[in-house]
Amino acid sequence: AGGIIKALPLLGDEPFLAVNADVWCDCVYDPSFDLGDDLAHLILVGNPKHNSGGDFSLEGTRVRNDGEAKYTFAGIGYYSPELFKHLPYGKQPLAPLLRNAIKQNRVGGEIHKGVWMDIGTPQRLEKLIESVSES
């Protein structure tokens, strides 16, 4: 979240999309996505082997911190600047901010069923390169 906090003056007051640099997916992004009163809208995916327990559950379109069916946060989300405005500059983890907003019932979400890969390690990046080369 620290990078987002630093970029807030450039992002303005409207909701924005943030995508982790270490994910690969075929998501279609909606530049006019409306958060309504939510602070965030998260894209969730099925759990990869390295995160088999998942991060969040989904009830309809509401993200929950607990629940039976767990999904992995894809590293893709639409965010309101309001989620970050009260935070000081510096390194800040995103998860506690999201979990707090979820407790306030201010986080929506959806499950992406297309292609998604976490390429945050050299091994996972190599796997992506191999799969792209084969296709």
Task: Please explain how this structure is put together.
With about 140 residues, the chain is an alpha+beta fold. It has a single domain (about 1-135), classed as Spore Coat Polysaccharide Biosynthesis Protein SpsA, Chain A (Alpha-Beta Complex). It is about 25% helix and about 30% strand. Strands 1, 3, 4, 5, 6 and 7 form a six-stranded mixed beta sheet that branches. It starts with a helix and ends with a helix. The model has no long low-confidence stretch (mean pLDDT about 95).
Nearest-integer average pLDDT: 94
- Main beta-sheet strand count, sense and barrel state: 6 strands, mixed
Task: State the CATH class.
Answer: Alpha Beta
Beta-strand content: 25-35%
Describe the protein's topology.
Blueprint: H1 2-11, E1 16-19, E2 23-25, E3 40-45, E4 56-59, E5 62-64, E6 70-79, H2 94-103, E7 107-111, E8 116-118, H3 122-134
Parallel strand pairs: 3-7
Antiparallel strand pairs: 1-6, 2-8, 3-6, 4-5, 4-6
